[in-house]
Amino acid sequence: MEGLREANWAPVHVEEQRPRKVERLGFQKHLLRFRQVEQMQTLDEWNLELVLLNSHDAGRAYQLHAGIYRRICSNGLVVSEAGFEALRFRHSGLDPVEVVRASLRVIEFMPQVSRRIQDFRTRSMSWGEQLAFARAALAVRFEEDAPVNPGSLLQARRSEDSSSDLWTTLNRVQEHLIRGGASDGRRDRNGRLRTVRALRGIDSKVTLNKALWGLAEQVIQGSEPTPTVSLSV
Length: 233
Fold this sequence. Notes:
The protein is of the alpha+beta class.
């Protein structure tokens, strides 16, 4: 973190995995999001972030991902592996300078991210295409028996998200699947309202984010959005 701070990366968000066993407390996975200091003062609609995954017991390699922070909804997206392949480092013999140097690749990647987001923004989607995207997104989050129908993920939580372009559709769907709360009014056999629960696991959130970005890439390429991964939630 000291090395990244010297390279003008400021930590802006931290998460720790909830340990299932008491003996894992203090050694669980964690996620840190960094943003360039000069971006902290801007009012851009989105900013590039550096996403670092790690665990205190060296049980996993350091991972650096390219992330995006969207100010309107405070959403934190993660770019798919096809867009930006995650950088991984072993703990043994790790040189912090190597990690800092690798972070510069994320900055170099920014123009490409900007162009892709513009592609998403200019890609208008019919209602049927939006439903197809939401249906594929549900298949990523739920292997079977999704608690809501695809249309529930397309409901806008704010007026700024009412557009039908791919960028806005991606962010609406992502927010519903990560934060939860979406419902189509159906109830379970006990009479309780069926809703999407918030996603808590760090790995699950990163995997879902990357998968959603990948679905958007498929749409841009003219393909039907088809999930390539599925979470067991």
